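Hi R.,

Here's the input for the GLP complex you asked about:
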Amino acid sequence: MFRVICTKDYDGVSDVAFEVMKPYLKEGSVLGLATGSSPIGLYKRMIKDHTENGTSYKGIYTFNLDEYVGLPLEHSESYYTFMHKQLFDHIDIPEDHIHIPSGLGDLAKNAKDYDEAMEKMVVDIQVLGIGSDGHIGFNEPDTPFSQTTHVTELTEQTRTDNARFFDPLGEEVPHEAITMGPANIMKAKNILLVANGKNKAQAIHDMIKGPISEKCPASILQKHPSVTVVVDTEAASLLEPEDYEVR
Ligand code: GLP
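And here is the predicted structure with GLP in place:
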């Protein structure tokens, strides 16, 4: 079940996303977190709330969706670095409460360990962005919906979309990633998907109104009981006005 909220711009998306997230920022909560530019505004608001209102993360646990294969943790574009820079370094979460799949060493074992760690806890709210090809996490088109944590080859479209981060370093986008599968994502009690900009409009349309198909990995969310989608007017541009609430 989707609740779709459309706001004027990216600041609006981040404000509404923070409102949705706020009730879960408490002792014992398990947050599923995402990388990419889409959730950065939400993370800024979480940091502000921690600094100004003293909201504590000491009793909160996190599970990230994915990581590139082969990047050392300290690489500026690893998702480990991204999460620390954008959120973890600015809040009081204990390091051992943070889970990020590892793209180094024995990948099959890392995937199995990640699934086992996830089986011990239930994610209360999973933050998602969406790829322009409809991917969630790094679950590219044609990933079986039953898939759990696994290693995946990135599509050319995803590598082109993410080249903006690696080009300035004179490096190639990695070819592979390790990611939670659709089956892990669907186990979260609630989903919060944020998207902005024209290049997400088709993926947002297909996720909400298209057939439930492995061609559009995000379309599996049509079967989830509690999904809030927060988009700006550009990302909502292929929806009908009756498909969303305006804020
Ligand atoms: C990456 C991440 C996804 C993210 C997507 C969109 O591929 N693995 O989790 O949703 O990019 O990124 P952005 O928010 O920068 O558009």
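One thing worth noting: The chain has a mean pLDDT of 97.

Cheers,
M.
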